[in-house]
Protein: Acid phosphatase of HAD superfamily subfamily IIIB
Amino acid sequence: MPDDRRPYAVLDIDATLSDTSKRIHFVEKRPKDWDSFFAHAKDDAVLDEGLAVATTLAEGHDIVYLTGRPERLRRDTVKWLKDNGFPEGKLLMRGNNDRRPSAVMKLARLRTLAQERPVAVLVDDDVKVCQAAEKAGYTVMHADWGLDAETQPALSAAQETEGRT
Structure:
C-alpha cells in the first residue's frame, strides 16, 4: 500500500529483476528483431537476487519500477511482476517513441520522482545509468547479478545508443 511518507526505491526490470539472456539473441543480429525481443519479455525467468532485493526494499519504501521497456508492454510487464511475486509498485515505462539513451531517460524520471518525495535508492544493471544517477546525487545499487550491459554489446547499444530498453 503506497504511503506518501515513505521514500521511493526505484528498480530497473530487464537484467535486474528479469533474466533477459534467452532473448538477447534477437538484438545481436542485423537487422535487430525488436518485436521478438520485446514479445518474449513476458517469458523471462526471475533473477532471484533481484526478487530478494525488491522484497527487502518494499519493507521500508514504496517501490517504483523504472524500465526502458516501451509503454506498449505495460500489460505483459504488470502481469509478469505480479505472477512472479514482486511487490506492488508504480510502473514507469519508456514512451513508445522515446529513443533517448537510458541514462538520460531514467535520470529525468528520477528527478520527477524526487520532486514528489525522496528517492532512497536506484537499483539498475546499466553501468551508465548508475554512473549518471550517482553523479546527480542518488544512492545506487549496481545490479551486477544479471546480464551485464557492459559485457553485452547488443544490450549496451540497445540501452545507450538506440534507446530501446
